[in-house]
Amino acid sequence: MPKKFDPNTEVDFVIVGSGAGGGVMAKKLSQAGFSVVVLEQGPWASYGKEESANKDELLNRFPSPEERLLSDPNRQVATFRRTAAEKAVRFANSYGCVVGGGTVTYGASNWRHLPWEFDELSRFGGIPGANLADWPVTWAEIEPYYTQAEWELGVSGQRIDTPYMAPMSKPYPLPPQPQKASGALLREGAKKLGWFVAPNAAAIITQPYMGRAACNNCGFCSGYTCQVKARSSSAVALLPFAEATGNCEIRANSYAHTIKTDGGSKVTGVVYFETNNNNREVFQKAKVVISSANAMGTPRLLLLSANAQYPNGLANGSGQLGKNLMSGNGGGATGLFEQPLNEYKGCVTGAAVLSFVPNDVKNRGFYGGARMTARGQQSPIEYGLGGPHGAPTWGADYKKALAAQTNRKLNMTNFISTIPV
Ligand SMILES: Cc1cc2nc3c(=O)[nH]c(=O)nc-3n(C[C@H](O)[C@H](O)[C@H](O)COP(=O)(O)OP(=O)(O)OC[C@H]3O[C@@H](n4cnc5c(N)ncnc54)[C@H](O)[C@@H]3O)c2cc1C
Ligand code: SF4
To answer: Is the CB of 106 under 6 A from ligand 1?
Structure first.
């Protein structure tokens, strides 16, 4: 039986959010003997019974609230403005909102940051309009933790000694995913252009590992849960170990809205709503509160926790809370090929061009770089609704174009480095 704590019992740690960050904290702290309560606003979804994971594309698009995997932009509303002078407007943003957070449905690309990304301010100087800063940790300090994470989670990939990839003190524990047609075409094209290509590094196990089965290349990957637990999500690679200690309770459907303090410098616990119980308010006592509610949820919670002593929110001595968002941005292009590509199989991407990853302000004339990945994966209904290229949107010619193009499409998707603004 998983551990249950009474909210009036002061636990050592309350962790808000059970995703990538929360899962690591829950596992490590409970294994060290601390009592831990994880508050997660999302439901359990298929946690612990992944074999019955939903692979129905329509049900996945229009899920019941209990089966929802991503946040609902109408419930978890986000707004955006470019400058403080602008009026903030709503924008559609979804993140993993379930026990395991974003890692339950993510594409699982798992690249390390490169050493120079840790001290960009010192290396490149400031950038007008951006709030560039060096990280408070160095590459040398963090490298052993990358290694530990890759081995404890189960990451597949190939160590290659090149300036385009971060140095590794130990190889990946698992070999890379099989090459897809998109990867083979990418390699061919890149060779002609002299670009460097590497197999994708992914938190997806390619061989049985730590009691889990290898990826069976089902093809319904990013956006879906993994029915064989091959995707090394927080929900299968971290939280079960935390629960197994008997020191950790994961409380789903629990939306944290205020961190309370004692009037001095100490927290006393977290007030949350039981979202499946008429939003009943509960106060969970804790010695320490960790907010790992993602890049938007954490500043939101800390700002909502403002009180007489901390009118600008908790942990905001710098005045920087809620600013400097670095979003994951991308660009892309699509091509149609003569040959069938069978890209509907396997996980999202198998290979990436790394030649443009390094920042090269001097020669390029602008900040930042990009990792270019080849992928064709689109599920049938998604493809049908998006429509074939250069064809009518209905009728016989639409069907003909759909049949001709669906299996011949390849996307190049680029993940671009962003600056804090
Ligand atoms: C479809 C998809 C594909 C992606 N593909 C990739 C990829 O290939 N590679 C990659 O590196 N990244 C990818 N990402 C991004 C990646 O999932 C996130 O960067 C990562 O999960 C962030 O970890 P986190 O712990 O900060 O937050 P999350 O994993 O987002 O976890 C935060 C958790 O906190 C919960 N929460 C938030 N506010 C509250 C509150 N007030 N009370 C209680 N709970 C709360 C949320 O419900 C969520 O479960 C993808 C994301 C998605 C959605
Ligand atoms: S492609 Fe592999 S990792 Fe992705 S959901 Fe299917 S079995 Fe899991």
So the answer is: yes
